[in-house]
């Protein structure tokens, strides 16, 4: 595929636009965007409905500059209808709602499975929607982590998300091993922010026989690095390790092929790129090669029992096959509703088409960042500069770019928020900006750059 810069240049040339930094070009890129209609599927916050905005600096009636889909996706307009329907059903028939359409409560989670299977590249029986992400990580690790004195380590990335880090720590302790001996956090080379695939593979080749499980995030929340899941999975399995991926930042962001990559298990939350609302219901993948395994210590509940005889209540477990057998409790209908609404949106396109737009949108953001704020840029307009922690190679990232500034991050963040930018800062020193292929456009990116420029100028002038 042509690079983002080449495409942007071509679009500009075709429209006789000579200034690649002009707002006119952003508008033209929006007009050419074949997925632009998807923005209408979401409630897009306005400046006037955001907290902390300074209305002397922005037009309160314009759209906010929402760049935070990496943290919380916007609300699909379809959610309310799904929830209202269920509230009405509950009001009208109470307990009978368990087996009445639409979305019979006893089975409602299963209605979201096909859509998510598609998003993660799973086959039938490999995906289940349940619980929260960290809970699912625990459930999977209890089932798949069987340390022995020779092979007891869990390999993860240094600076893993705290929840993953703590979950791994607690699983090691639960099995009677020491965190100091059994938890290996792989560090990037000194002076680098991202791990190289070759270094992960080399480490596995050297130490793989002592590693019981590899548990990385597919897309690193802090740096925005997309790992080469196929290669890492392949090498880890060659060494006899179980491989699990945390796909919190990958699902709905980049195309995934979990079945084909032969991943053992994976878990993800749904409130980031699949817009399911804060704390929304999470998902898990278990490869079909494990569909009938019974040799684990998984945690059970009545929902692990096959549906056909689940309500015989004879306390003789007949375990559901595949991922469904990892369920414990009955599913929360109100959390399934947002999943149905966002899957309706994803159905209108493909992950491949979304990825194509995403590469262009993030490439455009990168181009403008480098032009105005690059450390070595001849066209830099501010004294302060900005470095990217995220890999430059588009194949090694999703939509998010992680920015590091030469001036105080807290102050930059504060100034951005005043100008109606929704983004987040992550300690110690990064601001994450995610133009999301579902609802962001090129104009948003251009307006973000203008807001950043104004923010940095104000900071330099000591206001
Ligand atoms: C967002 C995120 C989480 C959040 O976990 P919850 O259980 O949903 O609170 C965990 N791990 C990673 C890598 C994340 O990005």
UniProtKB/TrEMBL annotation:
Catalysed transformations (reactions): L-kynurenine + H2O = anthranilate + L-alanine + H(+); 3-hydroxy-L-kynurenine + H2O = 3-hydroxyanthranilate + L-alanine + H(+)
Residues annotated as transmembrane: none
Keyword Glycosyltransferase set for record: no
Places the protein is found: Cytoplasm
GO CC terms, sorted: cytoplasm
GO molecular function: kynureninase activity; pyridoxal phosphate binding
Predominant location category: cytoplasm
Modified residues (N6-(pyridoxal phosphate)lysine): 272
Coiled coil regions, renumbered to chain: none
EC number(s) reported in the record: 3.7.1.3
Enzyme class: hydrolase
Binding site for pyridoxal 5'-phosphate: 133-134, 161-164, 217, 246, 249, 271, 302, 330
Domain of life according to the entry: Eukaryota
GO biological process, one term: L-tryptophan catabolic process to kynurenine
Protein keywords: Cytoplasm, Hydrolase, Pyridine nucleotide biosynthesis, Pyridoxal phosphate
Cofactor(s) named in the record: pyridoxal 5'-phosphate
Pathway recorded for this protein: Cofactor biosynthesis; NAD(+) biosynthesis; quinolinate from L-kynurenine: step 2/3; Amino-acid degradation; L-kynurenine degradation; L-alanine and anthranilate from L-kynurenine: step 1/1
Pfam families: KYNU_C (PF22580)
Keyword check for Hydrolase: yes
Family statement: Belongs to the kynureninase family.
Known role: Catalyzes the cleavage of L-kynurenine (L-Kyn) and L-3-hydroxykynurenine (L-3OHKyn) into anthranilic acid (AA) and 3-hydroxyanthranilic acid (3-OHAA), respectively.
HAMAP family with a match to the protein in the record: Kynureninase
Subunit structure: Homodimer.
Protein name per the record: Kynureninase
């Amino acid at each position: 595929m042509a690079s983002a810069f080449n495409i942007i240049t071509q679009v500009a040339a075709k429209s006789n636009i000579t200034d690649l930094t002009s707002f006119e070009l952003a508008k033209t890129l929006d007009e050419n965007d074949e997925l632009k209609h998807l923005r209408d599927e979401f409630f897009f916050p306005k400046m006037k409905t955001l907290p902390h905005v300074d209305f002397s600096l922005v037009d309160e009636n314009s759209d906010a500059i929402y760049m935070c889909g990496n943290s919380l996706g916007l609300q699909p307009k379809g959610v309310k209808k799904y929830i209202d329907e269920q509230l009405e059903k509950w009001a009208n028939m109470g307990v009978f709602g368990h087996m009445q359409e639409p979305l019979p409560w006893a089975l409602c989670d299963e209605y979201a499975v096909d859509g998510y299977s598609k998003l993660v590249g799973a086959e039938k029986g490999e995906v289940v929607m349940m619980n929260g992400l960290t809970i699912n990580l625990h459930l999977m690790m209890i089932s798949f982590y069987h340390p022995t004195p020779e092979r007891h380590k869990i390999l993860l990335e240094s600076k893993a998300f705290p929840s993953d880090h703590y979950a791994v720590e607690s699983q090691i302790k639960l099995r009677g091993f020491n965190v100091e001996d059994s938890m290996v956090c792989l560090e990037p080379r000194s002076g680098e922010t991202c791990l190289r695939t070759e270094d992960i593979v080399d480490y596995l080749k050297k130490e793989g026989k002592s590693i019981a499980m590899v548990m990385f995030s597919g897309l690193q929340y802090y740096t925005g690095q997309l790992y080469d899941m196929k290669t890492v999975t392949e090498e880890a399995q060659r060494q006899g390790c179980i491989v699990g991926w945390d796909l919190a930042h990958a699902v709905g962001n980049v195309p995934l092929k979990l079945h084909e990559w032969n991943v053992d298990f994976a878990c993800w939350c749904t409130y980031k790129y699949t817009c399911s609302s804060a704390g929304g219901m999470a998902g898990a993948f278990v490869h079909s090669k494990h569909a009938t395994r019974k040799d684990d210590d998984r945690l059970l509940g009545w929902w692990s029992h096959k549906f056909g005889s689940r309500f015989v209540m004879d306390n003789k477990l007949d375990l559901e096959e595949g991922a469904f057998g990892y369920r414990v409790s009955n599913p929360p209908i109100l959390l399934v509703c947002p999943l149905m609404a966002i899957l309706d949106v994803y159905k209108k396109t493909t992950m491949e088409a979304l990825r194509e737009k995403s590469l262009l949108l993030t490439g455009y953001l990168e181009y403008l960042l480098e032009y105005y704020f690059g450390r070595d840029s001849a066209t830099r307009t501010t004294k302060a500069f900005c470095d990217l922690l995220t890999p430059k190679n588009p194949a090694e990232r999703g939509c998010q770019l992680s920015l590091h500034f030469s001036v105080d991050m807290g102050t930059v963040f504060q100034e951005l928020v005043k100008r109606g930018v929704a983004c987040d800062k992550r300690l110690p020193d990064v601001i994450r900006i995610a133009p999301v292929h579902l609802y962001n456009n090129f104009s948003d990116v251009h307006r973000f750059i203008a807001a950043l420029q104004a923010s940095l100028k104000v900071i330099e002038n000591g206001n």
